[in-house]
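#onboarding

Welcome to the new folks! Below is a worked example of what a typical request in this channel looks like: someone posts a single protein sequence, and someone else replies with the predicted structure as tokens. Don't worry about understanding the tokens yet, we'll cover that in week two.

Example request:
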Amino acid sequence: MKLIAIDMDGTLLSSESKISLENKKAIIEAQDAGYIVMICSGRSHDHLLTYLEEEGISVPVSGSNGAVTYVDNKIIHEAPMSFEVAGTLFNWLEEKKQPFKIFTNKGTFCQNEFLSRAKEAFVSFDEQETLNRMTLDFFFENQKKQSLVPISNFEEMGTEKDLFVFKYYVYTPDESVKNSTQEWLSSREGISFASSWADNIEIMSTHGNKGTGITQIAEYYHIPLENAFAIGDNYNDLPMMTAAGNSIAMGNAEPEIKALCDYVTLSNDEDGVAYAIRRWLL
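Example response:
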């Protein structure tokens, strides 16, 4: 038995955020051939489960960059950050007036000025230079599709006993803001962070990464990691690519990602996932 871990945005999804028919067919072909196929994404676990069900895709899921992992709609692993660390992050980001969202076991929350702050951050820099793969309209349409609960302070989400914070998503289209935020994060304990696009930072616990996600599924199905394949396009995919015995970069992946991978497939707009599965796995 072998395992295939597939990223969502920039990988399985086209630039229009759709799963192509060929990619769907290839996933089914792999499952029929005995592969365990999983989705490992930075998206929240609840959003992933709903989206995949609507698409008719039934696979294990690891959301929030590996912080929550599901098999048959049952949680097999969670890696929330500590309540204290989560509160410190909220207060610091709020002090800096940065636009951010929080993925939790109670849904996805956002600072109540998230969209207005995001728009202000977007128009304050050269769009073509920094966001060459996204437009303002696309960004806001994507946010509106999500069920975001606006809050003004950390305590509104719940108490320490029943609140699990899995990930912070910080929108940082301005490179100088992104750099200063990463510098501050580097001085904090108990967290890890990565980027899934040029314009964001995703913050998890030290055990909340895609390497953890693929490892948990591999252990659940008793699959050696050397028999695992990881397909992705960006920096938050690196932990699962490092953990897996075989790594495949998308044609649209960052150059550094391509250089570190065993294979490079076609882009996400050319059914790169289907091509990779059929060429190197089947």
